[in-house]
Model the fold of this input.
Amino acid sequence: MKNGRFDAPGLSVIPKNLSCDVQEVIGGARVVMQSPPQSAVFKPFHVMTKPIGAICNLDCRYCYYLAKKELYPGDHFRIREGVLEAYLRQVIEAQPPGEVTIAWQGGEPTLMGLEFFRHAVDLAERYRRPDQHLTHTLQTNATLLTDEWAQFLKDRDFLVGISIDGPAPLHDVYRVDKQGNASWHKVMRGMQYLQHHAVRFNVLCTVHSVNADRPLEVYRFFRDECGARFVQFIPIVEQRDEGARVSERSVTGDQWGRFLVAVFDEWVRNDVGEVFVQMFDTALAAWLHLPAAMCIFAETCGRAVALEHNGDVYSCDHFVDPQHRLGNIMEIPLTEMVASSQQQRFGEAKRDTLPRYCIECDVRFACNGECPKNRFLKTPDGEGGLNYLCAGYKMFFHHIDGSMRIMADLLRQERSPAEIMDIFARADRNKPCPCGSGRKAKKCHGR
Done:
């Protein structure tokens, strides 16, 4: 959220008035559900729409979604007009007054072509009620963006998420095309088109075994070279079997914790109120006792579903499989599928399957066991269901506790959390100078 509203796919910013949009992040990016008082009629949910299914022009080595095309052998993988119309009508009719987010994901959604999106936006407007405002979001690898695309995205006020993993040497290790060629320069070209037309965008960075040990290089690249003001970090965790074995691309729990701590220490001293990092804003919501701003940290889930190109609806972007198929929008209304007992059980299992180790944890209020897809370790006492990233989250949440308390107190006083930067600056000047002189920094090299 920025100024109390959603400003980019997958990002949240705690607004000064303490109101809080409830966002759910599924897979790579993502969503918004307003948290003002809701009527009994409207209980918002989010749909991650995949108009071209899992088809993509890139072949990112860690992409979990590319394999989903195997669910539809021989399919043409393009959403049909009837499915598109049914989806837009159902999702808009089901949402309360105010802002309604239509999220386009993939695969790579720009493969549908510009004319498809011109038509989809116009079609959505036909179903919009006078008390609603539609916001379209697009998560893209940016390699196919052109000047014409950027002009359209600006004219229709899209919020664009760009998938990029840092500077070229870090990005191009895993984010390659079908021929194994690097993609970074094409991504940056697409970003420049967006910047030229002043299209609002964020960056979505996956944190993996290669870039995890270079957190400041990654963060500063986004901030200083890309000019990004909204940043989302997502850990790569690829479970190899039914046990605890993961791929060589996966970030470890300790790496993930150190990465977040390093970026936080840079951000809290320099960028509060200027750069919005989803993980940090979500943490601040927890310290303010507000609803979780990301589904991975919510006590329960299930209010964000994935829609495939043929109208099939799945419980979650990370659970697109026959077991979690809820139905098809051409046969069952979206509202019925989201409210079904199957989906309720799916959402409540996140809370009900927590091991005792998590239930008794001092940072459960901020974590809630994170995403169920990552819960495949055993606790110290042998109980199953511990999150693979637990050590990293504990490290991070313990590290930021003091800072979060300060910022939460500032907000409760109706003051800006950015004041914490002055607090840190004063404290840092009173520390011993790192040059080893023994003098306080403010009297030595800190002058």
About this structure: The CA atoms of residues 151 and 197 lie 6 Å apart. Confidence is low (pLDDT under 50) at residues 1-41. DSSP finds 14 helices and 14 strands in the chain. The radius of gyration is 22 Å.
